[in-house]
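Notebook, p. 212. Picked up where the previous page left off. The plan for this session was modest: take the two constructs that came back from the sequencing core last week, fold each one, and keep the raw output in the notebook itself so nobody has to go hunting through shared drives later. Recording the first one now, exactly as returned: residue sequence, then the C-alpha cell string.
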Amino acid sequence: MADVTSEGAVQAAPLIRIEELHRDFVMGDQVVHAVNGITTEAAAGEFLAVMGPSGSGKSTLLYLIGGLDRPTGGEIWVNGREIVRLDENELAAYRRREIGFIFQSYFLVPTMTALQNVQFPMIFAQVPAAEREPRAQQLLTQVGLEDRMNHRPTELSGGQQQRVAIARALANDPKIILADEPTGNLDTESGAVIMDLLAQLNREEGRTIVIVSHDPSITVYATRTLHLLDGRLRGGTEAGSRAAVAPRQDELRESTR
C-alpha cells in the first residue's frame, strides 16, 4: 500500500520491507544471532549494497530475502507479500518468478553448455520449449557471450562463468536480483565487468539489485549502502556515488577472464 506524506504526496510502498528480522543458529551449547533485529527497506529500482566483514550476517540476510532460508523471527515483505508466511510450494514459486540469484561460486551445471544452463530455470517456470532457446541466446548475447553459447563451464574463464550466471538469473525476468559476493572469485578487471553489467541492469532495465560484499569498491555502483556487523545494522545508510559507466559490448566480448 502506498503511503501519503505530510505534504499530501503519494509515496510508493517499498518493494522490500524487513521488520525486526532475526535468524539464530544453534552451535553446540551456544546460540549464534546471525541476523539480530534488522529493520530496513529497499525501493523498486534501487541498487543496494550490503557491506560487512565475514560473519557479519550479510549472506544470511540475502538468503532470507530470497526465500532460501526462513527467519527465527520478524517479517519480510516483498512486492506486497509477507514471504515468511508462504508454504514451501509458494516459496518455490516466489523464488522462481520474483528473484534472480547470483553466487560467488557460479553454481553452473558442469555437464551443460552455457546455453543449456541459461535455459534450465525456464523449464521449472514452464516456459514453452520453443521460447527457451531464443531467450537464452538473447540473454547470453546481452552479457557478451554470443560466441561461447555451446561451451561448458570448464571451457570458460571465471568471469565468463559469472556472466553465464547473470544471464541465468535473468531467465525468468525477475524484478529483483540478489548477488552474494559476485566478484569474490574474480580478478579486478573481470570483477569490474560484472559490476558494470549489474549497474546496467539496474539503470537501463530498472531491476532492483541487492548485493552483499566485503569489498568497498562495489559501493560506487550502488544507490545506497548498508553496513552490517554482528548481525546488526551499523552507522545508518550511505548514498552511493553511482560512478560506474555502462559496459561496452565489445569489451565484454573480448574479455577472456
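Okay, moving on. Second construct, recorded in the same format:
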Amino acid sequence: MTAWAVGAVVACGGDGDSRTTGAWEPSSSDADATASVSATDSADADATASASASAESDGGKTASATDPTDPDSGTDTSPTSGPSTTGQEYDCATLGYTGVCEGDVLVWCEDDQIMMVDCAAQGEVCAYQNDDIGYNCLPAGGGGFGYPVGDTTTWPAGGWTVTQVLGHYLNFGSFVGGHLAQDIANGEAATANAPVYSVADGTVLYAGANASTYVNVVLVEHAHPDGGTICSFYGHLGSVTVGEGEAVTRGQQIATVLDWQAQFGDANSHLHYVLLSAELCAASDAANGALICGYDDTAGPNGIEDLDSEPFSYTSIGDVCGDHNYPEAFTSPSQFIDLHHF
C-alpha cells in the first residue's frame, strides 16, 4: 500500500429478476451515449424513456417511462436524476448491461442508451443482483451483510479503497500503534460527506458525539450469522441520521463521512469502521460509544501491511481504552462481510 489514511486516537470517555425503474435517455446531441450524473441532466427536454421490448421479454432490466417535471413547480421530481455532486460521466462501452452503482443511483446501458434511476427514490438500494442482471435496485435489508459505502457489494469496500487495514502498524504524528479498524476512502472530494450505510439489519446502540478525532460515531448491534451478536462501529462521521434504539436495515443510511479538511485542515477524509465482539460492544454501549481506541500500543512493524496479510480477527496489544482485555474483539470487516454477503 502506498498511502494510509490515519484514524483516531480515542479519548476513553429484491428477489425479482428484472429492473423496474425510471430511465434516463441522453438528448439527441449525445451521439456517443455519454451521460453525466449531474443536476444538468434534469434540464434535458427529452429526459424520459421506456425500456425496449426485448428487455421486457427476456426477463432483464425494465424501465418505465416517467414524467420528469412536476406540473405545479416545474422542478424535476423524477427518479431519473442523479446526484449533482458526482459529475461522473459514463459511456456504453464501459457500462455494458451490468451497469454500476453511483451511490444509490443505478446506471446501465441498454440499446446503446444510458439508463439511470435513483433507487433511493423508490425506497430501495443499488446493489449487485446476479451475473445475468448485474447491478439493480433491490430492497434494503433482508438479511446478510454489505459494505457501508459506495455500491455496498464490491469487495473489499463497496468500490472504495482500503487505505489502512486492521492491525497495521502506523507511526505518523500522534497516530502510533496497531490500527484497530479498517480505514476506507474514495478520494477526498468523493469521500467527504458521502453517505454511510448500515452493514446489516440491526439496532442502533449509540449514535452521536465522541471526544476524539472520531467526532461522531455510530454503534449498531446485529445478529451474528453463526449465532449470538456482532456489532459494527463507524467513526469519523459528520452528520448522524439515526438515533439510539432505532431499528435499521442493511443499506439504510446512518450517517455521512466527516469532511476532514473542513474539520481539521488537512485532506484526509475517510471512514474508520470495524466489527466488534459482543463483549466489547456491550462495554462500549455502556460507555455511550466510547472505549473503542483507534490504535493500540504495538511498538513497531508487525508484518500486517495490506489485505493479504490482514488477520481475520485481532487482539489489541495494550491500549488506554482497555480493549486489550477483550480477546479477538476486532474483526476485519472486509473478510467478514465477504463471508456473509447478502
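Notes on construct two before I forget. Residues 20-139 form one domain.
Flagging for discussion at group meeting.
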